[in-house]
Amino acid sequence: MEMTKRILVVDDDKAVGGCFLAALEMQGYKAECAFTAMQAMVLIENFEYDLIILDYYLPDMTGEVFLRETDITSRSKVLLVTGRLTREMVMTMFKLGISGYLSKPVGSEALLHNVQFHISRTKPSAYTK
């Protein structure tokens, strides 16, 4: 039996976070929400997440600073979500280890499709031939 996947939504917009949580929980995921980067850091210290859905613009730091401060991409996949997407932002975030990105507004169907895709992908082992 497969374990329930655990997802952390990091978004300062409570309406967006609530919609994401509802959609994820309806699909059987264990989902939690943090509204600041600092709240997310506390949760990450205490729990393991399969995927982190990360808004780029947070009230206390950007998604870029968050990834530089947490080293979370070594343990969890990160899906960037933002309404103000730039090419430079995407390139920088991929260099920091994100798995993919979505541009807001994001509908439930697109969110769930991307979550399933990124969670199902496994990083190849360094020993895979």
Number of strands: 5
Order of helices and strands: EHEHEHEHEH
Strand content: 15-25%
Rounded radius of gyration (Å)? 14 Å
Q: Which spans of ≥5 residues are poorly predicted at pLDDT below 50?
A: 123-129
Task: Tell me, briefly, the overall form.
Answer: globular
Give the assembly state of these chains: single chain
Largest sheet: 5 strands, parallel
Strand order of the largest sheet: 2-1-3-4-5
Mean pLDDT: 90
Question: Care to give the gist of this entry?
Answer:
The protein is of the alpha/beta class. It has 5 helices and 5 strands; from the N terminus they run E-H-E-H-E-H-E-H-E-H.
Summarize the structure in words.
The chain is of the alpha/beta class and 129 residues long. 41% of the residues lie in helices and 19% in strands. The chain has five helices and five strands, in the order E-H-E-H-E-H-E-H-E-H. Strands 2-1-3-4-5 form a five-stranded parallel sheet, with helices on both faces. The chain is globular and about 35 Å long. The termini are far apart. The C terminus is likely disordered.
Helices, strands, pairings?
Elements: E1 6-10, H1 14-26, E2 30-34, H2 37-46, E3 51-55, H3 63-70, E4 77-82, H4 87-95, E5 100-103, H5 108-120
Parallel strand pairs: 1-2, 1-3, 3-4, 4-5
